[in-house]
Design brief:
The chain has 1 helix and 12 strands; from the N terminus they run αββββββββββββ. By secondary structure, the chain is of the alpha/beta class. It has a 5-stranded parallel sheet, with no helix packed on it. It has a 3-stranded parallel sheet with strand order 3-5-7, with no helix packed on it. The protein has a two-stranded antiparallel sheet with strand order 1-2. Residues 1-7 have low confidence and may be disordered.
């Protein structure tokens, strides 16, 4: 049914890897994946879905998913803009960790929880607006975000983890 891709050439592997991820990112912008006239809705992202992708610059997550999975975008060093649409309630651990060029993050009003290390080492992040229904901010969420200087924590937050702004944040 399908063909297995196999290569021992690191450069070739990286090119194939990036091409596949770019194709998946393009799919996320639409209403779903269409195969033989049938539309399949994207309802979740597996852990590491886009991890270490070096060409992804922006992503708009579909409103059909409810969480950003663990490590989903970890190490996407070229990622600059993330738009998370309404419906997402949880950003799991390490989801955007080491997205070094991330400058723009749009969070939905439906977001209730940001897990441990979610935005750690997002060095270019200067500000973020947290939604009014947010309840939990996990440990080290904005740790090592060295130029993060503007954030308002809503009154709805009942739990703030350890060292949320640790290691160099200017909050």
């Amino acid at each position: 049914y399908g063909q297995m891709l196999s290569t021992t050439n690191r450069a070739e592997y990286k090119a194939i890897h990036n091409e596949l991820y770019q194709s998946l990112a393009q799919l996320m912008y639409g209403d779903g994946l269409v195969v033989n006239g049938k539309t399949y809705t994207i309802t979740s992202l597996a852990a590491y879905t886009f991890a270490d992708n070096t060409i992804l610059k922006s992503i708009k997550l579909p409103s059909t998913i409810t969480e950003v999975s663990s490590y989903a975008f970890r190490g996407c060093r070229s990622l600059e803009t993330v738009i998370i649409q309404e419906g997402v309630t949880v950003i799991k651990e390490y989801a955007f960790e080491s997205c070094e060029n991330l400058t723009n993050v749009s969070l939905p009003s439906t977001l209730l929880q940001i897990d441990t290390w979610a935005f750690n080492c997002c060095y270019a992040l200067t500000s973020i607006v947290l939604p009014n229904k947010l309840d939990v901010i996990g440990d080290y969420v904005f740790s090592n975000c060295n130029i993060l200087s503007s954030i308002i924590i809503p009154k709805s937050v009942t739990s703030i983890g350890y060292a949320v702004f640790g290691n160099g944040c200017f909050i």
